[in-house]
UniProtKB/TrEMBL annotation:
It comes from the Eukaryota. The keyword Lipid biosynthesis does not apply. Keywords: DNA-binding, Nucleus, Transcription, Transcription regulation. This is WRKY domain-containing protein. Residues 1-10 have a biased composition (Low complexity). It comes from Trapa incisa. Residues 1-20, 58-102 are annotated as: Disordered. It holds the Pfam family WRKY. SMART domains: WRKY. One of its GO terms (cellular component) is nucleus.
Amino acid sequence: MFLSSSSSSSTRQPPPIHLPFMLPTSTVTMSSHGRAFGNRFVDETGFLRLMPSVEAPTWFPSSSDETNNNNNNHDDEQVKISGKRKGEDGRVKGGDKPEGKVRKPRYAFQTRSHVDILDDGYRWRKYGQKAVKNNKFPRSYYRCTSQGCNVKKQVQRLTRDEGVVVTTYEGVHSHPIEKSNDNFEHILSQFQIYTSI
DNA sequence: CGGCTTTGACCTGCGC
DNA sequence: GCGCAGGTCAAAGCCG
């Protein structure tokens, strides 16, 4: 089908970009080892910036989408919340897990890079890929491989700006980060290298 | 051989 | 009610 840029198939993983943040529990202070980014994470010119959804956690209320039109300043290529389903027979299909109606908060941000996989220090397993309407790049779905950790993330590249990757996290890790990655300066410099090409 | 990716099928919610 | 789009499952295949 469609390959999402250089990252797929032939060789397993391209050199990943390391993102040392921990998932926030309530608001959006992304932090890594005590280092807070706040929402001045970077911007337009830049490599990394928070999506509006991040700054407004009410983006995904428990009951489907009643408020998802509040913050519709995402582009047409927004990361859209939807999909809700009740499992029957305990089998889960489509949508997300049947953990009642409580939807886990999602946090989305953009990065400018030519690789899709942002290595945030956790181990992820890909469980799906879907073509998205109005987007020539597919969206990839990942789940944290750590036992008992239900965190998921979606990765999608924008059609309009192929250099931009939108990553959406859902849930909070229930375990410590698996790889050590502090040195955020180094990481930022990586982004600069990527963007300045 | 185990872990991971790929990919088609399936399920659900939403809009018309 | 129907069709579409998004999200997940699971079998098969690949790779280290």
